[in-house]
Amino acid sequence: MKMRRFLAMTLAVMMMALSLTGCGGDEKYISFDELYSSLSSSIDFSASKMQKQGEAALNNYYYIDPNTLESYAIYMSDYATGNADEIAMFQVKEEDQVAAVKALINDRITDLKVRYEDYKPEEMDKINKAVIEEKGRYIFVVISPDAEKAKTIVKDAISGK
Hints:
By secondary structure, this protein is of the alpha+beta class.
């Protein structure tokens, strides 16, 4: 009888421990500043004169409600350059909002395709190869002259390399 009680208690404790480890507490923090620095030092964005944007870019280009985000950083080409280069990084507050934010990001990419199709068709290759990666509550978008390198850098940041 004591053995059954001990076994039941041990199983209950183990199940509680296992259920707590699955509660998302293992999400790794990804520094937007470090990722931007890594991207901008490895890929030549000099022609685009990239500038950090504020909440206006979030509202006017991505249409993402700032209340759904824990944090974000958006870097866009200076409009005068005519380049489509863009780096956007989002940390969504709730994981169930990731799909909605990702849909808005895809709308942004579609909008860029429409805008650049006739305006500056040579930028279409960059837009068509836009890197969109997600990990947990993080979503990253990079439109750059070197999509493969951008993808590698983002994936390394996500995996902690």
